[in-house]
Amino acid sequence: MAFRVLLSSTWLLTITLYSCSNRYPVIQCQTAMGNFEIEIYVDRAPVTAANFIKYVQENRFNDAKFYRVVRDDNQPDNPVKIDVIQGGLFEDEHPLRLPPIAHETTLETGIRHVDGVISMARLEPGTASSEFFICVGDQPELDYGGRRNNDGQGFAAFGRVIKGLNVVKLIHQQNAKEQYFDPPIKIYRFVSD
Fold first, then answer.
1. Pick from 115, 2, 121: which is nearest to 52 by CA?
2. Strand pairing of 84-88 and 65-70?
3. What is the dihedral of CA 29, 63, 141, 77, to 10 degrees?
């Protein structure tokens, strides 16, 4: 199955989901800055992985975009620093948003927030739905027991960039106002075969 995404005249993002000899499904993302591929750990994080794949297969990310970037220069008041790019539907009441899913901690899955890992954004445990982020560098404070959130439950990691991590790092360096890309990288559509 292939999913192509055409963005505004400024950016191009294509996501392709396909099966190969790899033991995990792979999602290929193509942007105006290059391509990257993410393998999805369906066995280790079944709830979180199934949620993300459902968004892709049902074209629920049609209005998605990379909209947020967190790096050392834009979180001066936070004592626990992280480096990530965040994407998703952005709106809490977006009509394509699915209900929240159960929280799978890194303690349960064994998937740590290392360089290139993709994970679900959330407020409280059990509130993750459509928003996701990719780690730039190792981010242990996002794991179970980490200090980024006061509850210590960490975030639900479910896959990792296996090719083109340099593209993710290039996106991470794009222009931003505070923690928001300027402009955001919008997804126009998915095309599957």
1. 121
2. antiparallel
3. 130
What CATH number does domain 13-186 carry, 3.20.20.70, 3.40.50.2300, 2.40.100.10, 1.10.357.10? Answer: 2.40.100.10
Task: Tell me how long the chain is.
Answer: 193
Cα-Cα-Cα-Cα dihedral sign, residues 94, 97, 103, 109? negative
Question: Hey, is 47 helix, strand or coil?
Answer: helix
- pLDDT per residue over 122-148, tens digit each? 999 999 999 999 999 999 999 999 999
- State the DSSP H helix or E strand holding residue 34, giving kind and residue range, or none if neither: strand 34-40
Pick the closest to residue 31 from 192, 157, 193, 184 (CA basis): 184
> Cβ atoms within 10 A of the Cβ of 22, count?
11
Q: What are phi and psi of 13, to 5 degrees?
A: -135, 125
| Higher per-residue confidence, 193 vs 16 | 16
